[in-house]
Request: fold
Amino acid sequence: METIAIIGNGISGITAARHIRKLSDKRIVVISAESKYFFSRTALMYVYMGHMKFEHTQPYEDWFWKKNRIDLVQGYVTTVDHKNKQLLLQDNDPVAYDKLIIATGSKPNRFGWPGQDLKGVQGLYSKQELEQLEKDAPDNKTCLRAVIVGGGLIGIELAEMLRSRDIPVTFLVRESSFWNGVLPEGESQMINEHIREHHIDLRLSTNLVEILADDNGKARAVVTDKGETIECNLVGLTAGVTPNVDFLKGAGIELGRGVKVNRFLETNIPDIYSIGDCAEQHEAIGNRRPIEAVWYTGRMMGETVAQTICGNKMAYKPGHWFNSAKFLDIEYQTYGWVFSDKGRKEYEDHFHWRHPKEKLCITISYHKKSKKFLGINTFGIRMRHEIFDRWLTEERSADHVMEYLKDANFDPEFYAAYESDIVASYNQQFGTKIQPKKKSWKRIFIKA
Reply:
């Protein structure tokens, strides 16, 4: 019987295992040093915040794995011996394979800051890091202040977690405005305001220089490039992530920042594939990055590679870009491409609307000449994925999006609607006379 070995039990690896099982009777072995069972990494913050227990992050019961004949091995892979098709483990017996899937995910970036390896310094990616946070920052008596370094999505999550226990937080962001390498200026400025409204000490245009130790080798303060020394008991390093591939150096598998793969997620070694955060496309797909540390793309890669391994060779086609996140109380969605002011394409222009009082806004990206709709960001207003996916495929105009914007709204019943205000602002900016159409369930669910 053919054996499929999967290194990593995150969303990518487990999706591949589940779909291989649906399609075949192959033997499946999943190897992970992080945890015995698959869990939802994006839910870790809610465990710390008391909204759920860790077992609630595990979508499958313990009996699921045996019933579906998916063997679980706990251990750290030290060597991939592709010539003999076996994996050498640090604390377990070798695992032989016929085909191998590398799905080892990411690890937090560390840029060589003095003191970065002290006790009380950590990222927020793994189950072990959550457990360490619980020890170092159980309350605001043990942790008098935390300093977070890096202005991305993980950083804002960690800030929210710590503030849920009333722990004072200082947030060091090297950019002049929060996440302005991704968000247009109006959105980034709104998030700056929102962070500060939550009593988070946001320090923009500020870099970490050094982490100072106390007599016990634990972090006691950070030094910034502004010459400040900030006393703290915890330092969160959340300046992005990088593929977790160090163990593959010297194995003969082609590496860049991640494991190099083609459109079929194949490496340079026959019968070895890579998926998820650790996979790096030889050539980026459209405007996407060669490495995408995104939950849903990991799931899609898992489904795709399962088809190939089971005899239906399939290229990875992620479709239109989309994503979602949460900035404290504000829900964020993006569909298509809305580039930041720094990264904006020369053909791209934006329409931006912001509510005069509430933390609500949208930005629509469109082609300057043709006015073709390119993408949308929404903050505090929920939108329907399938509607925007369809409009992007049909290459609709920005005017069309405005006219039928109500169809895309996915806010719960009795929520306030803002489409009329948004369209009025759009008309004023462009001199148009668009009248928003009433929501039509036929238009929503039946393709025109």
The domain at 3-107+242-309 is CATH 3.50.50.60 (FAD/NAD(P)-binding domain).
